[in-house]
Amino acid sequence: MMQFEEVFSLRGEVALITGGGSGIGLAMARSMHAAGAKVVLVGRREQELVESCKVIGEGASYQVYDITRFDDAPALISKVEQSVGVVSCLLNNAGIHVKKPAGDTTVEEFQRVLETHVLGAHALTRAVIPGMVGRRNGSILFTASMASLFGIPQVVAYSAAKSAQIGMVRTLATELSPHGVRVNAIAPGWIETEMSTKALAGDPARRDKILGRTPMAKLGQAEDIGWAAVYLSSKAARFVTGVVLPVDGGVSIGF
After folding, report:
1. Does the annotation count 158 as an active-site position?
2. For a designed S-S bond to 233, which of 7, 139, 143, 208 qualifies (C-beta 3.0 to 4.6 A apart)?
3. The CATH classification of domain 4-194+221-247, taken from the options 3.40.50.970, 3.40.50.720, 1.10.569.10, 3.40.50.150
4. Which value, in Å, is the radius of gyration of the alpha carbons in the chain?
């Protein structure tokens, strides 16, 4: 039987986190790093990535990369593996948001959201599959959403993309799990980030509505998602695959 410290340790793992420079992505990176993993942050804003790596400390690095450059995904993975080590944990977290009524959402806006959340995540996943399958070891995580689980108005493109991710998780899990590669998702509830704090500060009615349907009657912290990512990437979850784990204070089961 493994010791407790071994079960949740990520020592020796290399975690690549898209959208890792801020918010939930940064929280996941910090938690993975605290558990012993080397973390590689991927994003488009270099200065943000530099500052985030300073916050995390030794064992953190970054790559400036736009995940919608689908054809460049293999080169990114190769570069990371040459400089840091083989990618054993991929966290597909990067995303964009369009908030407007469905009837006002343009094809171009819809397409941009799908390209980031669905096609970009698929391109990176496809790039890590051969190595993970060859080593018979790997964890792939997607950051899903409450919009994957129930209807939220004015986010039709985002909801479609996040729902598609859950379909990807289930298919990938059935394909890859026989080869030692686990695929799961985390569905965050309403989390207290810099962005959400600004949004809710000017909209007390919306904040009251969110808290009113959250059984725990509070917003989550970004590190709550980070520790869930550690669990799903660790040996503690070695028999867990194809799961969508809500970390939401009960929102998805509350009334």
Report:
1. yes
2. 139
3. 3.40.50.720
4. 18
